[in-house]
Amino acid sequence: MQLGALVVTQGSSHQSGEGTNSWSSSWPVVGKTVVERWIDRVRELGVGILSVVDRDEQSPVRVTDWVKEGVEQILLILSGSYAEIDFADLIQFHHQGRNRITRVFDKKGPLGISLLNRGAVLKSGLRCGLDETLKSSRYNFRGYVSRLSSTMAYRQLVEDALEGRCGIQPAGHQADEKIWIDATARVDASARIQGPCYIGAHTRIHAGVIVTGYSSVEQNCEIDMGTTLDHACILPNTYLAPGLHVRNSVVDGARLEQLERGVTVDLGRAALAARRYHVTSAVTRTASAASEGGNLIGCDWGTDAQALMPVRGDTHDV
Amino acid sequence: MTSKGPVVIKEFPQSRNFARRKSFLSEVRNLARRTYRPQLVLDIPESAEMAPDAIELLLECVEQVEQADGRVSVVAGSPQTAVILELTRLASVLDIFSSVSEAVNGGTLHRYQHDGLVQPIAAS
Fold first, then answer.
1. Which residues from chain B sit within 8 angstroms of residue A262, using beta carbons?
2. How large is the average pLDDT for residues B12-26?
3. For residue B5, what pLDDT is reported?
């Protein structure tokens, strides 16, 4: 029996709230996005066809074509949540009950995950998986679920992953108890890394930095000298200026969301953070020469604010 | 002697004009020179942008007032300002309040009437 899987992402422009609580499905959770984790888990099932589509996409995948080509069941995942569903058990439940449509629920309601029979798909197309008013069988799931409806929920998922409260395994190698550091990350010898925490690929942690309190620093970030991260998530390609105290926050480029106060601040105006981007080595060298004492030669990353660029201190590869 | 000095309320300059900021700092210097243990309350308007020069000016105010054994309080007009003050660790050297009345509560409000320093926002 051939199984197809369709993962529907929230759309490139999606944010779950305006101003604050603006979680996006493109945010990685200790190394991989939730969508990537769904894909990994679906692949483990040995699906025949797997497709990932954007909810806003103009020409959605024609799942009716899949069933015409021999796919018997379609697993539909709307990526608004992270749930550790035992797919094999779900398929068995669906098969044993001879269900046309099986929807997964937890105690709070539907999780946006459905298993569809070819008959249901041929009759109603993808609508049979999206329309909750259609008759379906209910699969009750009581395992770990995170409804990623807010930045706070995202932050909680990161904490749960670092604490081992869910099945998410942080990327990178485990340097110490509950400390994961990617092999390509550079951490200064004087930096204090207190687990549980995560430091992603190609990230640079400068002298005197403190990373503590279930903090995660995703890929291609740069945390400048003396900055403290406490219960903070730093999203990819973010530069943080020296001497800051980032607490209970999620930082994405120059945008900081303080979870306790529920406010969003543009740190770019205060020159406290910036978006890092890839620059050609020639540009990097020019910037390095312009910044006294800077040692950016060999580093092919820059920021959107040259004033924030000086990089000092010895580092060692982890 | 543990009594606090006068409470002086001043509006923090919004303008990024160098001359305006220099004149503001000079007013604070005068205050620190002429009073003992001043309690300076800086009211940062909601629309104020916490640019690096504003942070630097705040630090200079703290330095001046501390030389007179005083204390600087800040009325953060917006939660964004409060977040930036906390982020830059300024919260450890000054007190942050959400309103002027909260900032002067418990202190003896003193209308500083020198060099036009009386502020319209002073609590009565």
1. 79
2. 85
3. 80
Residue A302: other Cβ atoms inside 10 A: 22
As a whole number of angstroms, the distance between CA B65 and CA B6 comes to 12
Residue A60: predicted pLDDT: 59
Judged by a CB distance cut-off of 8 A, whether residue B51 touches chain A is: yes
Task: Check: CB of residue B44 under 8 Å from CB of residue B15.
Answer: no
SS3 per-residue string spanning chain B: CCCCCCEEEEECCCCCCHHHHHHHHHHHHHHHHHCCCCEEEEEECCCCCCCHHHHHHHHHHHHHHHHCCCEEEEEECCHHHHHHHHHCCHHHCCEEECCHHHHHCCCCECCCCCCCCCCCCCCC
User: Chain A: residue nearest B52 by CA?
Assistant: A270
Domains present along chain B, CATH in parentheses: 7-120 (3.30.750.24)
Preferred mutation among B83, B85, B93 to probe A, highest tally of A CBs within 10 A = B83
Q: Closest residue of A to B56, CA-based? A: A270
* Confidence category of residue A301, pLDDT binned at 50, 70, 90: low
- The arithmetic mean of pLDDT across residues A62-83, rounded, is 87
Q: Does the beta-carbon distance from A265 to B83 stay under 8 Å?
A: yes
For the complex shown, is ipTM > 0.85?
no
Confidence band, pLDDT 50/70/90 cuts, at residue A136: confident
pLDDT per residue as tens digits for the range A137-186: 999 999 999 998 899 999 999 999 999 999 999 998 888 899 999 999 99
CB spacing of A256 vs B89 below 8 angstroms:
no
On whether any CB of chain A is under 8 Å from the CB of B17, the answer is no
Q: Which of B52, B84, B89 sits opposite A243 (nearest CB)?
A: B89
* Residue A292: predicted pLDDT: 36
When CB atoms are compared, the residue of A244, A265, A271 closest to B80 is: A265
Query: Does the pLDDT of residue A87 top 70, yes or no?
Result: yes
Q: Which residue has the tokens 């990373």?
A: A211
Q: Is pLDDT of A135 > 50?
A: yes
Residues of chain A in Cβ contact (below 8 Å) with chain B = 243-247, 256, 258, 261-265, 267, 269-272
Residue A120's pLDDT is what? 85
A83-86 contacts, C-beta under 8 A, 24 or more apart: A83/A111, A83/A113, A83/A141, A83/A143, A83/A144, A83/A145, A83/A146, A84/A143, A84/A144, A84/A145, A84/A166, A84/A167, A85/A111, A85/A113, A85/A141, A85/A143, A86/A143
Give A-chain residues touching B82 at CB under 8 angstroms.
Answer: 261
